[in-house]
Amino acid sequence: MSAATQGTRRHLFSIAIILISIMLLGGCDDQPVRSNSVKTLTQSQQFVFEPVVKGEPIIFPQDYGEHPQYLAEWWYLTANLKTEAGKEISVQWTLFRMATSDDELTGWKTPQMYMAHAVITTKKKIWKAERFARGGIGQAGVSLKPFRAWLDNWSWRAPTSNPFPGELEFSDDDMLARLNIKQDGTIILQGDEGYSQKHPLLGIASYYYSAPFLNIDGVIELDGEQYKVDGRGWFDREWSSSMLSAKQQGWDWFSIHLEDGSALMVSQLREKGQTPYFIGSRSWPDGTMVTLDNNQIRMKPMHFREVSGISFPLSWLIEIPSQGLKLQTSVVRRDQWLHFLFPYWEGPINVTGSQKGKGFMELTGYEEQ
């Protein structure tokens, strides 16, 4: 093994140890057993980060960029695509930033760490990869003028400070994607003008906005075979210093494009022994949006299936009477357990019922229950 290879592996191992340390910051008496994938999003008991304040405006283009004064944030893209022959291919690409302390150091001493996930899914197979990097040395980050979000050679670039239109490119082993991303609608500020409450009583919240109306086309290569693809995408941005209370176990999140052209986001945050807390919205490309509060959303798991020894609710009934919606979801592929450093289930879904649709589902906090 070369010295360079040994050095790279030592560097990645060091970052992994640091990230694991982040996940342990939420220690508190009388907590339930919680998964590694959500511990990092619990309020730090050791460091002081900026709070999420109701009424603080989201401002563009600056809020396309980084917020290092907060504990964690992500740039999250999903897409349901088709080839010219009609084969369905789904894509998830996420860049995470996490702070290991509240120090304002730079260069190699920066507390800002980055993690990126790339996942491509067909009905029969999943391709996935995970990478880590340190901020402050040019290996990863998000910059404006023009927009660029990157980790190593995985990169989302745009000619202006706005990520749309832009181009996402990533490759790893037997997968490659070069995708053009165009916005066909407005930015949606989730919750109360971007203030997204996560708990009914405590001041747990994030800043959260979405771009649910994206047109995506480009090229995907899987196991040496190349496909031209196009379809619809969804972009989510969140940042916070405390996205879960110490007793919340995780969330079940859905992003759905409905056949009438609207977009639906619903999520429940689970707490053992308590009724889940619901958040959501329904939006349209012209900017019309209906915020769905905790009393308007009903979510019920219909079927649990075992994946990698863990029981997941892979089929759901989602009802929103005020919107006339009664939807049933089903997964495209059952085994979408992403055994990354922060493990979670994530994958494309089909929707039937009062309307048809396609989207993505994310399930966190199940691995250690």
TrEMBL record:
Gene3D superfamilies: AttH-like domain. Residues 73-241 form the AttH domain. It comes from the Bacteria. InterPro entries: AttH-like_dom_sf (IPR023374), AttH_dom (IPR010791). PANTHER family: BLL1000 PROTEIN, HYDROLASE. This is Hydroxyneurosporene synthase (CrtC).
